Amino acid sequence: xxxATRDLTTAFDHLVNIPASLVGAVLxxxxxxxxxxxxxxxxxxxxxxxxxxxxxxxxxxxxxxxxSLFNALxxxxxxxxxxxxxxxxxxxxxxxxxxxxxxxxxxAIGPLHCAxxxxx
Length: 120
Description:
- By secondary structure, this protein is α+β, with helices and mostly antiparallel strands.
- It has a domain at 29-94.
- It has helices at residues 8-16, 18-28, 94-98, 101-109, and strands spanning 31-34, 50-59, 73-79, 82-86.
- The chain has a 4-stranded antiparallel beta sheet with strand order 1-2-3-4, with no helix packed on it.
């Protein structure tokens, strides 16, 4: 748009800021990515009376908080004429997800406990 209005100074500023914007997106995340245009590739009726009207994914960065990929999904679901909208939460970042990795591994390989409190 800046070239159409012949605002070369602003166009040059945007060009110079591209590397900083790219590094910011890699470290902090991009934001929400709307994938609604891809819904036409899915079957039109997934379940009886249920269809998807929108889908979004929160794009994480390396320094974003940890979490689940399901927290990053946002869906618009039509239930027989009633629309349910689930907004995307926070996206799981690679380094943030590694913070609790030690605890998760310890729980996974730790002793099993039965209902009586005895270990195996």
